[in-house]
Amino acid sequence: MSIKSRYISFLAAIAVLFTNCNQGAKTIGEKVKKPLNIILLIGDGMGLAQISAASVISGGLALDLIQAIGLVKTSSADDYITDSAAGATAYSTGEKTYNGAIGVGMDSLPRTTILELAEKNGLSTGLISTCSVTHATPASFFGHQKDREMHTQIASDLYGKGIDFIAGTGKPYFDMAKLQKEYQVSMGQGPHDFKVSAKHFWFFNDSIHPPKVAERGPWLRNATKAGMSYLAGNKKGFFLMVEGSQIDWGGHDNDLNYIVTELIDFDKAVKEAIDFAKADGNTLVIITADHETGGLSLNSGSIAKRQVEGSFASTHHSGIMVPVYAFGPGAERFQGTMENTDIFKRMRELYGF
Ligand code: MG
Ligand code: ZN
Questions:
Q1: Which ligand is nearest to the CA of 246?
Q2: CATH classification for the domain delimited by 36-351, as one of 3.40.50.1820, 3.40.190.10, 3.40.720.10, 3.30.479.30
Q3: Ligand 2 centroid to 311 CA: how many Å?
Q4: What is the domain partition of the chain in residue ranges?
Q5: Ligand 2 centre and the CA of 254: distance in Å?
Q6: What is the dihedral of CA 194, 200, 203, 209, to 10 degrees?
Q7: Model confidence over 301-322: pLDDT tens digits?
Q8: What is the pTM of this model?
């Protein structure tokens, strides 16, 4: 061991000592105000570099104003580098599983999701994504399949689940006759004052995935607004998951403009959720990512000119911790460094299930 590395180890030991002291000072059994509603917004592949770039280019994000912040370790059960299926399953079920797993554990057997717990307890539920509803992230909240590529089987897990509001794509995977028995189905942008009066499935278009935001417009924000106002009709509360799905796809493409435009679009949904929570007072908003994508680094830029230049370490996911932001009653439970599975545990604890 070199002198330099001994020195680093010494500093690391001191840091551990301080962390332990801090934990000891925490008030045990502290009274936490509980939320009635939880909105979980997941920016797929949204690491700190992605957020930093979008913050400069947009001139400031709604995310930048949130004070309760933590860090999330994202690894899956079988790989240091998670995929979106294992990442979302950790959030939806509180269990680390293998990459590719949709709502199942290491034994490929179903685990109960936070959405299913919410349904069982009489709450309303919703799912919104800028990808197929059968894609890894949304699928892991209602589906139980051993492989993320089993789209038709994942779609069949949705019938009879009782989800009250769904917005996304993936129409080719669904049996429309079955879907229309349960849902009012609509298609397209929807007016800005989109009002929903019955269980609703809102497809952006009839493709597997929607286009990029330039072509999609403010659909994610509109769907989020419509979803929140419909779900809020249940006085017992609601659970809503909103995904900015394509931030990740920009990362895989090593396309900084794709990442930033999708992240700014996602941030508009974040702003709607925060505004709703401010007015409502009983809503906890949690914003996080399942993992970082691309190993993005920002190497130069100008705040005045709203420019950044980045470089990518890979076209895949990385193991870098991702931030979690929280606003509303219970937000303080999302501070510090945690495992991805802790997000589920803290949501369940705050709901009191
Ligand atoms: Mg995803
Ligand atoms: Zn990905």
A1: 1
A2: 3.40.720.10
A3: 17
A4: 1-30, 36-351
A5: 12
A6: 120
A7: 999 999 999 999 999 999 999 9
A8: 0.91
